[in-house]
Amino acid sequence: MKKVIEIENLHKSFKDVHAVNGLSFSVEEGQLFAFLGVNGAGKSTTISVICGQLRADEGKVTVNGHDIEKNMNDVKRNLGVVFQNSVLDKSLSVIDNLKYRAGLYGISGEKFKKRLEELCALLQLSPVLKRTLGKLSGGQKRRVDIARALIHKPKILILDEPTTGLDPQTRKLIWDVINSLRKDDGVTVLLTTHYMEEAADADYVVIIDGGSIVAEGTPLELKNQYTGDFITVYGVEEEKVKELNVKYEAIAGGFRISVTDISEATNLIVNNPRLFTDYEVIKGKMDDVFLAVTGKKLGGGML
User: Fold this and answer.
1) CB-CB neighbours of 247 under 10 Å
2) End-to-end CA gap in the chain
3) Cα–chain-centroid distance for residue 218?
4) How much is the pTM?
């Protein structure tokens, strides 16, 4: 599989703060690649280096075969970026913001009109095109941010926490758009997010802490390595659960029992049929992986 982003031994410091420490990873063509870490872990700094907003102290970054130090103009043609904070002009209308952005890529006239129609259909922008950006809701602004990033039909889309703070309906719309771009246009997506259910759908995950990689793999590989499975049993007395001699915790209406894997879960259930009459078996989640790897909650608190 072709590697469309390659980062080798990346370092970036701000005075005494080492934001990125020897980071190395690659993103394959067509992947949904999740890049995870608490605030301050080095995610946004890495993205800013990839996009040419910051210059690395050391290391090499290649995007679609182009070295960012030598061919940044070629890199920008391949990249679309949605930053955490909008870079659009709040005093301009939506259509003027997009027209200005399109002009930077030589997209104007009928070509711009056609692309605008495509983006309006994709992101439901038609009702707000003539409205001033500063008067839009958070979800509407985020959709315009994404339109800005897609105006030149990039093959690589970088999304830095694109759905944080948005309502469920807007989050679903954005993910429908992302999935459509990947399926229909073969777009590669590098995502940072605070929502672990989004990371769980990724093809590959890299977790960083203190600017360095602390874990990486597919979601299934990470779950198998860093978490076990769980049996949640309902409507039983705690004394009966204690007799199993396994680790458990009380939850609303029942108890959550930790097991190593599905095989152990099966043995417990088969050997204790009277206890397990109302239960469910659940694999460990990406939240559990993140806690196990970093000792921190993704929102920023220590475990």
Assistant:
1) 11
2) 38
3) 13
4) 0.86
The answer to whether 157 and 80 have CB atoms below 8 angstroms apart is yes
169: CB partners within 8 A, 6+ apart = 139
Query: What Cα–Cα distance (Å) separates residue 100 from each residue in 11, 110, 147, 152, 227?
Result: 34, 15, 12, 12, 48
Q: Are strands 79-82 and 212-217 parallel, antiparallel or unpaired?
A: unpaired
- Give the Cα separation of 171 and 194 in Å (integer): 13
With both helix axes pointing from N to C terminus, report the angle between 168-185 and 138-150 in degrees, rounded to the nearest 10.
Answer: 10
How high is the pLDDT of residue 299? 56
Which bin fits 42, alpha (ψ -120 to 50), beta or left (φ > 0)? left
Q: Tokens for 272, please give them.
A: 């204790």
Which neighbouring-strand residues pair with 192? 160
User: Which residues make Cβ contacts (< 8 Å) with residue 184, sequence separation at least 6?
Assistant: none
Q: pLDDT value at position 295?
A: 86
- For residue range 49-80, list pLDDT tens digits in order: 999 999 999 999 999 999 999 999 899 999 99
Compute CA 31 distance to the chain's CA centroid, rounded to the nearest angstrom.
12
Q: For position 297, what pLDDT does the model report? A: 67
pLDDT value of residue 228: 84
Residue 303: per-residue pLDDT: 35
pLDDT score recorded for residue 298: 62
Give residue 270's Cα distance to chain centre.
39
Of 170, 165, 133, 164, nearest to 148 by C-alpha is 133
Tokens of 63: 């995007």
Is residue 35 a contact partner of residue 5, using CB atoms and an 8 Å limit? no
- In the numeric block, the tokens 């970093």 are attached to 294
* CA dist., res. 218 & res. 203, Å (int): 6
Residues of the chain with pLDDT under 50: 300-303
